[in-house]
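Closing statement on the nicotinamide-adenine-dinucleotide sub-project.
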Amino acid sequence: MKILITGGAGFIGSNLAKRLVKEGHTVVVLDSLLRGNKLDKWTFSKIKFVKGDVRSRKLVDECSEGCDVIFHFAAVLGVDIVADNPVETMDVEVVGTRNVVEAAEKNNVKFVLYASTSGIYSHSAIVKNALTEEVLVDPRTSYAMAKRYNEIYLASHHEERNLNVISLRFFNVYGWNQDNRMVVPRFFEQALENEDITVFGTGNQTRDFTYIDDTVEACFRLMGIEGCHIINIANEAEWCITDLANEIKFITGSSSKLTYIEAPKKRYDYEVERRVGSSEKLFELTNYKPLTNLKSGLEQIFQINYAEKINA
Ligand SMILES: NC(=O)c1ccc[n+]([C@@H]2O[C@H](COP(=O)([O-])OP(=O)(O)OC[C@H]3O[C@@H](n4cnc5c(N)ncnc54)[C@H](O)[C@@H]3O)[C@@H](O)[C@H]2O)c1
């Protein structure tokens, strides 16, 4: 198949591009390189790379010509960056998704898989053990509101134009080659420097961390599924931030101390006490759910990202 990945030079997109190339697909990546280029040399040499903005209708049209599938991952993200740039965040989401949908129709692309977020659950109550896709969502930030808007927008295109759409609600994806906008690489960097590991709030807040390889596997298996779906991609395990920090300390052999600081005001809307997702729906559709536990995922990224540098 021929597949376009918008935001394909980013953390998740670059890993997905590598997998799709290995499986023999033709891959086009459209990315503005806002966050640099995370595609490795081998993958870069096998894809068609287009540097540009997903808000350009002309570029999205050109890049999706002849494609069977579009993974639409281009986005502005990272809590501090989004909080400082709410208008641009929404603009990239809304205009980018409109362009993807219009281009899909023009070029007869049958499947669009869109990167939504578990952030849209916000303070939604966790029913039974985990958040399911049926829970009433509660988006409060520009980022989460735009993601929810796009989920609904895509669903309407399925109704009206029969486009096959899947909104992927990612739960804290972590792994190789992620940058320190996110908590896992930030803690690794602090631990390796034996600096204080800074935790916002009490450290008792929980998240569900999903390993990158599992995330890519889920995306890969969902490609080509017909209909209109919203799917959690979650590890179904609840970890508090203090335990995450201690685990990273242990793996790196660090002497860092954990320090607890009040979150800056601009982060308030992003702070939720608990978040853990159910991947039951993913399993029903694909017979697969993310299985890598956090300890083993952290150990793997330590070996890939940092251990070689330490031993060099
Ligand atoms: N990483 C996570 O834990 C997580 C969680 C929930 C949702 N998501 C979503 O998954 C997707 C991928 O996230 P990621 O972690 O790989 O982030 P990332 O920042 O590494 O990748 C996003 C990519 O989009 C590109 N981009 C930004 N604005 C653009 C524009 N206007 N035009 C073209 N390209 C542009 C960036 O250059 C970057 O390469 C995003 O849509 C994100 O919102 C990620």
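The mean pLDDT is 94. With this model delivered, the sub-project is considered complete and its resources will be redirected to Aim 3.
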